[in-house]
UniProtKB/TrEMBL annotation:
EC supergroup of this enzyme: ligase
Pfam families: AMP-binding (PF00501), AMP-binding_C (PF13193)
Domain AMP-binding enzyme C-terminal residues, every copy: 411-486
Species this protein is from: Allosphingosinicella ginsenosidimutans
Lineage of the species this protein comes from: Bacteria, Pseudomonadati, Pseudomonadota, Alphaproteobacteria, Sphingomonadales
SUPFAM superfamilies: Acetyl-CoA synthetase-like
Domain AMP-dependent synthetase/ligase: 10-360
Name by which UniProt lists this protein: 3-methylmercaptopropionyl-CoA ligase
UniProt entry keywords in alphabetical sequence: Ligase
Length: 500
């Protein structure tokens, strides 16, 4: 087992000092690896001058920007722990996270200063737009540690809270290195590649898919403040992106963009997707454009890359998340913890160096997340086919039983998502006097489209067994979502008196 990792940024700066590491996608400002190395060193010195050292937490609250990566590497050099916070949360929610991680310093972007100042018990605040550059310039230089202890905590990512209160996932140096191996071997990321980082940096995909692996590889990361369809289309039109990762809602928006279908897309070597179930309809629409959309699956707790479809199989295996990647081990087990046979549904378990050691200061949640022999419980139900490809059929907590038969909401959602009038859908089990439980479908219609419950039920009956057809359809203007675009079903349950 790896005990120490060399300072990866310093190594990369020594190997490719003049290569561009980071580029601001709005202003065009860029940093070479030598400049990023120097600024990370200055940031480390600035933090140390403020008394921050081994194990101390440094929180950051800002939209996507280059400075987050400077601070990520700065924390590595002094053994501090970076905690990216969600700018989508109000002060009242952030108060809970601040109390949990107890940061010594809160670094804040200009757009979020008011929120930071409204915190009930805010630590010292450093403004990225008002104080950061001066603080870097004034800090006395100091020697950085040449190695990073692999098992140590590098940063914390708070879960999005789709099933309850967010938990701080411990992310170690070993996890980052395992994710680098998993995603670069699957997507072929190398030093000549450029990628775009637009998913929120307080989410694991924002840091790790593909930004951090690309930096470790010596490639270029173009940073956008957030998701902007026009900006992404412009980068694609300029042939500036070699590898691309997004969540299904982003692909849905790109497919709806009037200019996307006419773009030259042959320069993009790898298209990745994850973060939420990928509807077949989106994968098929991408296939029609010649895009080999590689569906995958992972968790914040797995670093995140666990599964990813090979491009050669992408068009023939729609609906699968592929196979476990190089440093990921996976099992599917029954209620007794026994491995199931191919084709059978069971809970998906993970092992390997990419798996988190647990949750920050939450031993109870950590114990609940692992089996007695150390496998991480995903909470997902899956099956493996005879060729070794995995299929995630839904969340264990979301499955419901109708008339004695198991119903997996993801299967029903996939069918409804293919209806031309449906923009998005979420299915939840609810109490039913006749069948015990039945499906309750929340449906968001596409702009200008029309469909009623009778039409949607008939559409389902033609494609699903009768017990899987939702008993009720409720139409919504939009869904509450996580930072990854995943529907927050717990909030839908809270507003539905009969849902469980």
């Amino acid at each position: 087992m790896i005990a120490e990792i060399p300072d990866l940024l310093a190594k990369r700066a020594a190997l490719k000092p003049a290569a561009i590491a980071l580029e601001d996608g709005v202003t065009g400002r860029s940093l070479t690896y030598a400049a990023l190395d120097a600024r990370a060193g200055a940031a480390a010195a600035m933090l140390a001058a403020r008394g921050i050292g081994e194990g101390d937490r440094v929180a950051i609250l800002c939209r996507n920007r280059i400075e987050l990566f400077e601070l990520l590497f700065a924390c590595a050099r002094i053994g501090a722990i970076l905690v990216p916070l969600s700018w989508r949360m109000p002060a009242a929610e952030l108060d809970l996270l601040i109390a949990d991680c107890a940061p010594t310093l809160l670094i804040v972007g200009g757009e979020d200063l008011a929120t930071a100042r409204a915190l009930a018990d805010a630590p010292a605040i450093l403004s990225l737009d008002e104080d950061y550059e001066a603080a870097l310039a004034a800090a006395p230089r100091r020697a950085a540690r040449p190695h990073w202890p692999a098992p140590d905590t590098w940063y914390l990512i708070y879960t999005s809270g789709t099933t309850g209160r967010p938990k701080g996932v411990i992310c170690t140096y070993r996890m980052a290195l395992a994710n680098y191996v998993n995603i670069t071997s699957a997507a072929g990321i190398g030093a000549a590649d450029s990628t775009v980082s637009f998913l929120p940096h307080f989410h694991t995909a924002g840091i790790n898919l593909h930004a951090l692996p690309t930096l470790i590889s010596g490639g270029r990361v173009i940073v956008l403040p957030g998701f902007d369809t026009d900006a992404l289309v412009a980068l694609l039109a300029a042939r500036r992106i070699d590898t691309f990762f997004a969540v299904p809602t982003v692909y849905r928006a790109l497919l709806a963009h009037p200019g996307f279908a006419t773009l030259p897309l042959d320069h993009v070597r790898h298209w990745g997707c994850g973060g939420a179930p990928l509807p077949d309809a989106i994968a098929l629409a991408c296939r029609d454009l010649g895009i080999r959309l590689c569906n995958g699956m992972g968790m914040t707790e797995t670093g995140p890359t666990a599964f990813l479809m090979d491009p050669a199989d992408a068009w023939d295996r729609i609906g699968s998340v592929g196979k476990p990647q190089l440093l990921c081990s996976a099992r599917i087990v029954d209620e007794a913890g026994r491995d199931v046979s191919d084709g059978a549904v069971g809970e998906l378990l993970f092992g390997g160096p990419g798996v988190t050691p647990g949750y920050w200061r939450n031993p109870e949640a950590t114990r609940a997340a692992f089996t007695s022999d150390g496998w991480l419980r995903s909470g997902d139900l899956a099956r493996r086919d005879a060729d070794g490809f995995y299929h995630v059929v839904g969340r264990r907590k979301e499955m419901f039983i109708s008339g004695g038969a198991n119903v997996y909401p993801a299967e029903v959602e996939n069918v409804l998502a293919a209806h031309p009038a449906v923009a998005d859908v979420a299915v939840i089990g609810e109490s039913d006097p006749q069948w015990g439980e039945a499906g309750h479908a929340f449906v968001q219609l596409a702009s200008g489209a029309q469909a009623d419950a009778t039409a949607l039920a008939a559409y389902c009956r033609a494609r699903l067994a009768a017990y899987k057809v939702p008993a009720r359809f409720e139409f919504v203007d939009d869904f509450p979502r996580t930072s990854a675009g995943k529907i927050r079903k717990n909030l839908l349950v809270a507003q539905c008196k009969t849902c469980r």
